[in-house]
Records
---
Amino acid sequence: MTSEKPIVFCDFDGTFSEKDIGHRIFRHFSGGKNLELVRKWKDGLISSRDCLEKEAAMIEVMPDQLYQFIDQFQLREGAVEFYRELKQKDIPFYIISDGADIYIKYMLDKNGLAEIPFFSNRVTIDGNQYRIEFPYDNNGCTRCGSCKGARIQDIVGQNRPGVEIIFIGDGLSDICALPEADTIFARGDLLEFCQAKNINAIEYNNFFDILNKLKESGKLP
Ligand SMILES: [Mg+2]
Ligand SMILES: [Zn+2]
């Protein structure tokens, strides 16, 4: 066991949640019209904030329709067990997301995990209008809606003696978290990004993999 105290930060869409729920909502309720925007965002031509604002403006949905749609999704295998084990070991766990509170809260509540602190963009449904707001200033980042690098800085602070920051993610909205992290778990687009940039990242499929790898490396008791 190393002497550093771990703090775990985890992306939501496609990571803690098996599928990218935010993306699925826009794709489903826009009839696929959002895909061109997503392509531009992935190519770095528009910021995620721009992309999310334009996607939100494309869809109309009533709350009960939205929740019915979200009900098909699940958390990633081992997510609940992973969180419970960290809690039992007194290791802080935060979800940081460039998605939206409306479905993150719903999914956490549904899985008995309402106590997990999360930081994300904010969505309200007004009539059938899906309105997205960006409650955070992002310490100067103009790429993100809610910047994961800025959230880690806000929570941990700049001075980090004895702290081991562990980040778990799957996509391009996770990039700003990478310079803040001591240990990175990646899959999907994030893993490809790390490999292309020679950034050390550990591949995972589910949260049991992550638990095992943290224990093997002595980062978890
Ligand atoms: Mg993601
Ligand atoms: Zn950022």
---
Amino acid sequence: MIFEVLSLFPDFFSGFLTSSIIFRAIENELLQVKLTDYRTYSKNRHHQVDDYPYGGFPGMVIQAQPIYDALQELLLEGNAPVIYFTPQGRSLNQQILQNYTSYERIILLCGHYKEIDQRVRDLCISDEISIGDYVLSGGEIPALVFMDGISRLLPGVLSDIESANSDSFSSGGLGFPCYTRPDIFMGLKVPDILLSGNHKLIKQWASEQGILLTRTRRPDLIK
Ligand SMILES: C[S@@+](CC[C@H](N)C(=O)[O-])C[C@H]1O[C@@H](n2cnc3c(N)ncnc32)[C@H](O)[C@@H]1O
């Protein structure tokens, strides 16, 4: 999987790319993350990319030209979906992440400031995704969320894919509570069933716990 990230702040991604599961996936050539600073495409003498909005509204709008040119160059290398992160997009969920795992290359566009020029959205974007009903300063965190969520679904990235398959949302509902050693911590004991060695009953317990949690916390997920 190749993620092509277009951002005005590519340094933002350095910690993400050099830590934990993502770092290992890159080392093992299961994942590539290519960063493009679209400021470098600006035809402005000072590489300025933002300008005042038409209509006299407050805030600054990123011009269409640098984003458009950067996207055209990436698309010349091969067709790929172009996702723009915006609070106005469809809400990200596990199913959307799962669907995107079938692509070999995905282009991710991070906005900033007030907005990007609507015309680049109209011309170039194939999907608009929101990571929640709140407003962040830029699309970098949403891009991280998206890349992280997809990466762990790719074959070979997690050492045990079964772990991801039993996480929340993988079968629609929430996951189950987990415990590790010691058996007793601050007077609280691990449920007996988990120490029983009976794998069939343990699986059933985990499934029931997941359903219970979903009913109480996320009844909207119960179909
Ligand atoms: C200040 S926000 C722009 C908000 C926009 N004017 C609006 O009313 O929806 C700047 C950038 O942050 C990103 N962003 C902020 N919140 C987001 C969210 N909840 N989901 C996805 N992207 C978000 C987008 O890329 C956006 O262009």
